[in-house]
């Protein structure tokens, strides 16, 4: 039996932004991320895209960062030495 929708229900035709999340721990690790829910062709379709980064200082004093995108094509990290 098909699901019944409320009379005021409308299919999503625009992306929905997910608020930015950000925090830093007491030992200097920081993380930020934000995302977007994208509508699909049908009412049960769609995808989630998340972008973010994590940074930290290593014991040798160097600072590193991993930035990433995670979406319907997979997880795509980029690693770099910041300083």
Automatic annotation (TrEMBL):
<feature type="region of interest" description="Disordered">
    <location>
        <begin position="22"/>
        <end position="60"/>
    </location>
</feature>
<feature type="compositionally biased region" description="Polar residues">
    <location>
        <begin position="23"/>
        <end position="32"/>
    </location>
</feature>
<dbReference type="InterPro" id="IPR000618">
    <property type="entry name" value="Insect_cuticle"/>
</dbReference>
<keyword id="KW-0193">Cuticle</keyword>
<dbReference type="InterPro" id="IPR031311">
    <property type="entry name" value="CHIT_BIND_RR_consensus"/>
</dbReference>
<dbReference type="Pfam" id="PF00379">
    <property type="entry name" value="Chitin_bind_4"/>
</dbReference>
<feature type="compositionally biased region" description="Polar residues">
    <location>
        <begin position="48"/>
        <end position="57"/>
    </location>
</feature>
<protein>
    <submittedName>
        <fullName>Endocuticle structural glycoprotein ABD-5 isoform X2</fullName>
    </submittedName>
</protein>
<dbReference type="GO" id="GO:0042302">
    <property type="term" value="F:structural constituent of cuticle"/>
</dbReference>
